[in-house]
Amino acid sequence: MSYNNYGQPPHGGYGGQQPGYGQQQQGYGGQQGGYAQQPAYGAPHGGYGGGGGGGGYAGGFGTPSRAPPPGIDPALFNKFQEVSRGDEAISLLELQEALRNANNRNFDLDTVKYLVSTFDTNHDGIIGIHEFVGVWNYIRDWQNAVSQIDNDKSGFIDRNELQQGLTAFGIRWTPEIVDLVLRKYSVEDTTGRLFNQGPSIPFDRFMRACVTLKKVQEAVDQRSHGAGQVQFTQDDLMKFVLSLP
Ligand SMILES: [Ca+2]
Ligand SMILES: [Ca+2]
């Protein structure tokens, strides 16, 4: 799978998956949820308290209707059944509804499409339980990595954190590139909480930015053998651009 090549979050230097993170950060970013859960972004309800997400799943499911398949953590299977609304098949929009940033903002549809295209290994357009495990672990790994660079625990990545993150993730950058990334991936925060810290990027958009930049860098490196210049045919370039999340 392609994500094994360049979609994975960085591992080295971040202490890997420290299960303790978050537990000591209760109230992260001044809200329930955020990075404080394990994994925070997978929780469709409960823990995020408030915001639009809590009510949508009320009723209809509670305890799993059956035992989890062999090798599947029961709590994760329970979550899978919740997110799938009980039919054990997670659609694109069901996954989007379940995945939240620290301000309870849903992941972008483009981010969710990237996750589905990466982990829908049988290409049926829906996320089954084993594919869900892949999504879950992937987001958890990214959370762990991003938590290490989100210095002020705001749940958003600001300019300084972005520069630190790109460097830590092995992405070569210039100030102009940082400006462009901020312009493209930052969001307005309707709560006004961000106004004093400049443009900032929510978790899912930051993840997508890093994957995109990493893919471009690796494509150039692989094709140029380090020379930094590559030639694409139009068809190849179109396919490459369309493969970016
Ligand atoms: Ca599938
Ligand atoms: Ca921050």
Automatic annotation (TrEMBL):
It comes from the Eukaryota. Keywords: Calcium, Cytoplasm, Metal-binding, Repeat. Residues 10-19 have a biased composition (Gly residues). One of its GO terms (molecular function) is calcium ion binding. This is EF-hand domain-containing protein. The keyword DNA-binding does not apply. It is found in: Cytoplasm. Residues 137-172 form the EF-hand domain. InterPro entries: EF-hand-dom_pair (IPR011992), EF_Hand_1_Ca_BS (IPR018247), EF_hand_dom (IPR002048), Peflin/Sorcin_CaBP (IPR051426). It holds the Pfam family EF-hand_6. Transmembrane segments: none annotated. PROSITE patterns: EF_HAND_1, EF_HAND_2. One of its GO terms (cellular component) is cytoplasm. Residues 1-42 are annotated as: Disordered.
